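Project outcomes to date are best conveyed with an example. Our students and postdoctoral researchers have been running inverse folding experiments weekly, and each run begins with a structure described purely in tokens. The record below, which covers 250 residues, was selected by the lab manager from last quarter's runs and is presented without edits.
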């Protein structure tokens, strides 16, 4: 049986978290950089607790005006400090409610830069390790971020995407480029089924891209996120997938 985590980014003020959480096995919660505050973190942590969903921090460039999707010129020390600050903010919310922080997954531009830039990946991985070496680091499958996490002794989860297109080098097609977002549900489901059955995706140029899939992401800020999550959960069930967060026993 194939085992796969189904994760969603939450706590971003999109208003549909309560409908999505019962459908996923892990959640990455905005912790003040691109969205979220102490109140939203507490509420989202509590929601995850009620449904047995693994809780992760979702740090980003601290740029709320651009939702963390603009690259910022920061030093490695600044990135390290920012990630620690954000992860500890969510860790504090977990501690208040007796929850356990499970993983860290960077958001937006920070995630994409870390996928291609080893120095940024190292700064993030070392920050995660400095907060708690037991945390799992989520990163783009086969990227510098997962490589750095493994090199620094962290457990890593290679992430794939249901509704993002890929380039031939395994990176995500940049937002704003034609076809970067897979809006059609059937096309998204076809990509997920191919990942499960063939272990690869077809890039925008038609090339086959092999990918390791430990966790499947759905973006919670989609307008149709609930419908997408429902359909993806059903498709995973149809494929006989054991949906479970990384590191969680049966």
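After processing, the design step wrote out the following sequence:
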């Amino acid at each position: 049986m194939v085992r796969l985590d189904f994760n969603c980014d939450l706590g971003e003020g999109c208003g549909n978290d309560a409908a999505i959480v019962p459908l996923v096995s892990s959640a990455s919660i905005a912790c003040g950089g691109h969205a979220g505050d102490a109140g939203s973190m507490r509420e989202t942590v509590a929601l995850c607790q009620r449904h047995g969903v693994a809780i992760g921090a979702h740090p980003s460039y601290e740029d709320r005006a651009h939702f963390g999707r603009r690259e910022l010129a920061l030093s490695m020390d600044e990135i390290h400090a920012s990630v620690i600050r954000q992860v500890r903010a969510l860790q504090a919310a977990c501690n208040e409610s007796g929850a356990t922080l499970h993983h860290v997954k960077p958001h937006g531009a920070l995630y994409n830069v870390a996928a291609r830039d080893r120095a940024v990946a190292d700064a993030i991985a070392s920050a995660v390790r400095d907060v708690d070496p037991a945390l799992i680091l989520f990163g783009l499958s086969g990227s510098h971020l997962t490589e750095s996490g493994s090199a620094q002794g962290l457990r890593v989860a290679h992430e794939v995407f249901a509704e993002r297109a890929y380039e031939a080098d395994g990176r995500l097609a940049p937002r704003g480029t034609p076809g970067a977002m897979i809006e059609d549900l059937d096309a998204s489901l076809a990509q997920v089924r191919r990942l499960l059955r063939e272990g690869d995706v077809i890039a925008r140029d038609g090339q086959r891209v092999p990918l390791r899939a430990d966790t499947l992401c759905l973006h919670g800020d989609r307008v149709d996120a609930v419908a997408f999550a429902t359909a993806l959960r059903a498709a995973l069930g149809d494929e006989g997938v054991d949906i479970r967060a990384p590191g969680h026993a049966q």
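Residues 11 and 44 are 6 Å apart (CA to CA). The two ends are 13 Å apart (CA to CA). The training component of this project remains on track.
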